Structures are given as C-alpha cells and as structure tokens.
Amino acid sequence: MYNFDPMRIAVDTGGTFTDCLFVHNGRLEILKVPSTPRNPAEAIGNALQKILASDHDAASPLDLTCGTTVGTNALLERRGGRVALVTTAGFEDVLEIGRQARSRLYDFFVDRPAPLVPRERRFGLRERIAADARPLLRPSRAELARIVRLVEKSAAQSVAVCLLFSFANPAHEQALARALRRRGIHFVSVSHEILPEFREYERTATTVVNAYLAPVMTRYLAEIAREAASATSSSNSAPRPQVRIMQSSGGIVSAAVASREPVRTILSGPAGGILGAQYVAGLAGFPRIISFDMGGTSTDVALVEGDLRTTNESQLADLPVAVPMLDIHTVGAGGGSIARFDRAGALRVGPESAGADPGPICFGRGELPTVTDAHLVLGRIAPEGFLGGEFLLDERRALDFMRRASAPMRSLERFAQGILDVASAVMEKAIRVISIERGYDPRDYTLVAFGGAGGLHACDLAAALEMPRVFIPRFPGALSALGILRADVVRDFSQTVRWPVDSLRRARGRLARVFTSLERRGSRELRLEGFSSLQIHIQRLLDLRYVGQAFELSVPASGDFVAAFHRAHERRYGYSDPRRPVEIVTVRARISGRTPKPALPRSRPAGANARAAIIGSRRAFFSGRAFDTPVYDRSKLRAGNRFRGPAIIMEYSATSVLPPGWLAGVDSHESLLLTRAGK
Known about the structure:
Blueprint: E1 7-12, E2 17-24, E3 27-34, H1 40-54, E4 62-67, H2 70-76, E5 83-88, H3 94-97, E6 122-125, E7 128-129, E8 135-137, H4 141-153, E9 158-162, H5 171-182, E10 187-190, H6 191-194, H7 200-231, E11 242-246, E12 252-254, H8 255-260, H9 268-283, E13 288-294, E14 299-305, E15 310-311, E16 314-316, E17 319-321, E18 325-326, E19 329-331, E20 337-341, E21 347-353, H10 371-377, H11 395-405, H12 412-434, E22 446-450, H13 454-465, E23 469-472, H14 479-486, E24 489-500, H15 504-528, E25 536-546, E26 553-556, H16 561-573, E27 582-593, E28 614-622, E29 625-633, E30 642-644, E31 647-650, E32 655-658, E33 662-666, E34 672-676
Parallel strand pairs: 1-4, 4-11, 5-6, 5-9, 9-10, 13-22, 22-23, 29-31
Antiparallel strand pairs: 1-2, 2-3, 7-8, 11-12, 13-14, 14-19, 15-18, 16-17, 20-21, 23-34, 24-27, 25-26, 25-27, 28-29, 30-33, 31-32, 33-34
Helix pairs in contact: 1-7, 2-7, 9-14, 10-11, 10-12, 12-13
C-alpha cells in the first residue's frame, strides 16, 4: 500500500522566490527562498537544507514533489536539446508547414518561428501504415539501419519518431525505437507513447517538444535528486529521497516518468495553484471560482466550476502541445514586470520581467521600474515586513530610480499608479478571456487571489469585473505548493478511434474494450509505484464532435454522453443540433493514485474586533488620494475578525491591499473574505 512517512515537502520553483510547504508531525509550515535562475535545483537544495536542519528526523524518509518552469523556460528561450525527427518518407516537412492558421490573420509579413528541428535533421523512413491500421509497406532492416546511421551522423542528443497513422498501429514506430535504443540513443520520444491521436501536425509537434525537453529535464531532475540526497546525507540509515514532479494536468508523476514525458510538465507550477485554489475555496463554500495567481513574472488565471477543466489544444511558444493540461490562461504581468514608455510615449508594463536577478529596484540591484516598485512608492507595501522581516526592501532606492523614470508623466504618484492600472488592465483582459469570451459571467464567481502579488490587485480587478467577492487563502504566496502537496499521482492515456455513434448501446460495447486496455496499462503503472486497488481511481472521458466538424469537446463517458455533448456544445458555441450525427473521436482515461492530503485546521471564532492585529500605519495612495492606512499583521488576525479599508495586510508569503470602501472578514480557516461595502 502506498504510504507517506512523516516528512513531505512541496516546492514551487520558477518565480522570483522558490516557495516551499511541508508537513511534519501534522504541522503545515511555509518557507520562501530566493530562486536561482541559472540552476533552479540549487534553490531547492537551499530550501531543503533549511527545512531539514530544523525539523527532520535524520532516519525518516523524504518525499519531495516539485512544480517547475524548467520545461517552459527551455521552450520559450529555445534552450532545449539537439533533436532529430524521423517521419514517414514524404512527410519530413510537416513540422515546418504546420497549419494554415496564422497568429496575425492579416499580416502577410509575419515571421514564423523556426521549427525546433531544422531540415537537415529531419529524416524520412520508407514505410506506410494505412488509416485502417493495415501495414502497406514494412520498413526493412536495411532501411532501419540507414535511418539509425543518419541520426548518429546528425549528432542529435534526442530523437522524435512520428510515423503516419502510428496511433492506429504502432508496429513500425516500435521497430525503429528498438533499433535506435540498441545503438545507445537514450532520449527517444515515440508518438504512439506520447500522443496516440490523429492530427499529424499536432502529434508531430508535441512529440518533438517532448524530445526537445528530455535532455534538459533529465539533467534538472538528476540535479534535484543530488540536492535531495545531499540534504539527507547526514544519516546513512535514511531511505533514498522520493522525487515527484507536478504535471500540467493537475496530477503528479515520478521523476522517471517526468524524464520520459517532460512535455506533460510545461505548466506544472500554475497547475498546482489551481488545485490549491479549488481546495481552499471549497472549504469556504465557493465551488465556482476564478483563480488569480500573480507571481513575480506572470499571472495565471483559470475558471473552476466543480471539476477542474482540462484542454488538449494548448499552445506555447507558437507550438501546439496536445497533451492534457489544465485550462490556464497566462499573461506577462507580475510583480517583477518592467514598466517603460514606448516610442509613441505610451506606458507599457511587461511582458519583460526583472525576475529574481536583478529583481525590482527595491531588491537592491535592479534599475528598471517594476510593478513591485510602484506598490512600494504608493505606500502599499511595508518595506520592513517583506518575508516576515527577513528581506528589507530599499524604499529610498526605489523612490530615486522611480522618480527619474517618471519624467514623461511629471508626477511620481501618477507614474506609479499608471503602472498599476496598466498591469491590472492586462490581467482583467486575461480573466475576460477565460470567462466572458467563453460564455461565463464573472459576476457569478468568486475571485481567489494568491501568489506573492495577487492580493495587491485582487480588489481592483473584482471591482472592474463586478465580481461579488475576493477570497485570499492562508499561505497565498505558497498556494501552488499547497496544491502540489495535495495532488494525486495521475497518468493520462488516450486513443483516437473515430467511431460514429449509431446507438448508445453499440457505442458502449466498442468503448468498453478500449477503456479496458487503457485502464489496465495505467493501473499496472500505479501498482508498480505501490498503490493498492483501493487507492486507484479511474475517470473515463470522450472527445465528441458533429460529423464534419474539425474540433471536439470532451465530456464524461458515463450516462448519456451524446446528450452531454449537445449541452456542452450549446454552452461553448451558443447552439446545438441533436438531429446531426455525432462521432466519437478520442477515448481518454485518467488513472489516479490517491495520496494522503494535508488539511487546513479550523480556528475558533475570536470576535469581530481586529485591532490587536494592527502593527502600524502608512501613508498609502488609492485612486490618486493619500490615506493614513493601518497595517495588519495577518498572523495576528483571528477567525471572526472584521475590519474596513483602507488597510494593508502583511504576512510572510504575500501582501494584500484592502482599498477604501471594502470590508474584510476572517473565516474559520483564517482565510480572508473581501467584499465591497453595501454589496
């Protein structure tokens, strides 16, 4: 039976700070350490040293789960491995041709990014599988040997193999993969293992991305393993640390699986945030939420209504990534986003970020104005309270540099407020994309704000979108780590079938065989990780569409899934047609291994008076007006406390702002519920 021993640590890396949440002896603790962009594993090692030095039995095992942006950054910055691509002869240019769709429809001069694999490293294998899975041309031994020689000559670190119709019959891909691996080529990504689905371009691109990231992710995971082993090396009796990685789909996997399938980790950090938001909002009775995760570099938003929404149509760095991901929309607006004036004199904020090095001006090394500096100038952050006083912000330095940068606007306060307004506009647009543009009214949802900077902008966004309330959980600066800590081990499997639905009874009979095959594979993998049958949960999904349509909608496979598809189509596109024939395109199975989950403790009500939590006051600006604003220490707020804005709420992991005209209350889990007065 799968079991955790006392020490469990979740780490969310990639932002200005590396956030850690850990459980030991039933206690939930938080730690933030500066990120190390050149080697993200180093920050994890630093955190582990601090945690284990103060709170760990040297003989007890360590379970470490990480959310990471290593894959994301490698893709965005084009720092992946040297990849060769093998396709069916005649299809070598699929990756470069792509789709007719253009990012800027009417721009005939737009430059498409270069493919991850240049033409000289794309090789065609003389073979052919028919659409009905019949082998039409089997690759000979000589042909396989020829391709292996070409790959070796290319000096590729990694190989992507994507043959025509291999999702229907993978025999030729399997033969080539065996030949490559026999020659010592370790990083071989095979499309029927990564994405056994139709659409040649998407399948090829996803397999190539996996191969591109495999060397980078393998090195990174090896470094994490070394850091974890070093942190626990004081005891010879301690078991080897267990390392797991968060996936973009909201589940965790072993480091071995993440090394083989790194494409599934691209949005691992943001995925943890959505899991955490869903959990804490559910405790408070808010199942319908919009999560708002504002960190140092970017902001991630998602709409949650009951179950988490996944998509298979994501794009990153102008490349399709067709593996399941939580439906997250990301924009380049964060606390470290750099403000500048463009050539026309308009104020712009982001997507460029000061990051962890050099960071905002107030961190002591940066010289370009950022969103964090604007908040500090406007008095919304207490410099002495950052990270619980461990990190003193340089207010005077921020004022000096911001004053110089504000010259075009002739007012420091107007410049700083302008930075915040522009950043908020970018984030408001992101929320509109995942709500209004998809048929959802944000006024029906609670805004769950987290990340180091989420609480600084949440009320302004809620007011602009007429949302009824803002919810700020405990540990807002480490909520992604909480989600990672509560995640299950998950394996996603799929198979394209393209079957018309003549009758539900006949369709269920054909589907049962496919589901059984996928589920056996997933259950076998989870049992090898130590899960019992009682700990394994299976979810069945189907991708359906009207015959003749180009894209699908995913619905649960239980009950009348055709009727469910019609309802989903009506919701998404504004119409449905029950008279039109429907076809099943892809069968999906999600196999989960349930893990123990830490819970937030309840607190007893302590009355409405919150004065005991006031630790000082600051002159802060709101909408161009200065207010004498009390500063609250969130660790001193108790369940039942209530107070009015303006207020600044400081805590170890984040700062939150309560503008004038807003009310704050503390619930039984010591989360903050913010509402507008009179609403």
